[in-house]
Amino acid sequence: MRFIWAIIVGLFLAAGVLMFRSPDSGPTPPTSSVTAGGSSPSDRISELASASTSPKTDSEAAASQEASSPPGDASAPDESITAMTHVLVDGDTLQSIAGRRYGDERLWRKIVDANPDLAAGRLELGDTIQLPPLESIEIVDPAASLIADLDEGRSARPNTSKVGESVEISPEAPRLDLGLYREILDATVAPGELVRTAKDRIVADGEFTIRGEGTRDSPYRVSWELLASAADTYRPSLGETGIPQRIAALDGAWISIDGYVAFPLGGEAATEILVMLNQWDGCCIGVPPTPYDAIEVALANPVPRSQRHAISFGTLTGRLQVSPYLVESWLVGLYLMDDAEINLEL
């Protein structure tokens, strides 16, 4: 089932590799210069951002610089840039400007981030671009965008697992170290507060109620909001590797959860499925899952073809594993379920 996640994250990995690989490991960033002539501004910025041209000789570059550099912000190609702005002159490249401003030609994309008109092709020779300090340039991270989308979607859904105002937690109620010392690959456990308010009820961090005892006969009743809350502190691509204790406490326990089910294509009987928060058929219907709101499930008993549909909803009960699956630092999968039984409603 891991290949499903590899497909989902493939595009982001490809983008990440192209953005951050070193110059000597593959294709290099654009090196074309802005040139004067009969081309349109869009053609010029296209040349600046993506085309390859023959390098000028030293004498040609010097003559071109002298002829086209306006006074003020423009600086010679071999001089560092300390100003917050720069006038585009013939001979400029994104690489050279980044090297002269930030000391690293590989940061040319940050110049584009700071100048939307540059990427849109609305600049030409003589126009001024912004070169603010590097730390003030907003870095757009695909992983962070995914998490933000997840957070937004989670906040928009009614959360039936939230602790109501009527629930009172006694100071004398036992605090649990459940899950605190679990060893989870590529993660550490971030301590929280788990309070047992009844034999079959635990209140986690004052937010989530976990009902049941975590056994086969009395599994924990788990909400997707609880599972998705792992994103609060576990975002490996951002350097955050703390699994909340409330999540670690579920590792190895028997749980029950409702969700949409995706079956693999073909085969007489399915023994592996994907259960998700949102409806998705594995292709083009619904919302593809994230690692935080999906579980890869190994069934105890196969589901025959006659009971499978493109879109199914049901209840899964099985033993949960909190098992991060990373490709480099990208989180591809997080939850597994073994020995699972399924009760399909649709």
**Beta content:** 25-35%
**What is the distance, rounded to the nearest whole angstrom, between the alpha carbons of the first and last residues?**
22 Å
Assign the structural class, choosing from mainly alpha, mainly beta, alpha/beta, alpha+beta, or little secondary structure: alpha+beta
What would you say the CATH architecture of the largest domain is? Beta Barrel
Topology pattern, helix = H, strand = E: HHHEHHHEHEEEEEEHEEHEEEEE
Shape: elongated
Q: Calculate the mean pLDDT score and round it.
A: 76
The major sheet is characterized as: 5 strands, mixed, barrel
CATH C-level category of the largest domain: Mainly Beta
Cα-atom Rg, whole angstroms?
27 Å
Residues in helix, % = 10-25%
Q: Identify the strand order in the major beta sheet.
A: 11-12-13-15-14
CATH topology of the largest domain: OB fold (Dihydrolipoamide Acetyltransferase, E2P)
Q: Look at the structure and name the CATH superfamily of the largest domain.
A: Protein of unknown function (DUF3299)
Number of helices in the DSSP assignment: 9
Low-confidence stretches: 20-28, 31-46, 49-73, 160-166
Number of strands: 15
Number of domains: 2
Give a description of the structure.
- By secondary structure, the protein is α+β, with helices and mostly antiparallel strands.
- The protein has 2 domains: 31-136, no CATH class; 142-152 and 184-190 and 214-344, Beta Barrel (OB fold (Dihydrolipoamide Acetyltransferase, E2P)).
- 24% of the residues lie in helices and 27% in strands.
- It has 9 helices and 15 strands.
- The longest helix is centred in the first third of the chain and has 19 residues, at 2-20.
- It is elongated.
- Residues 20-28, 31-46, 49-73 and 160-166 have low confidence and may be disordered.
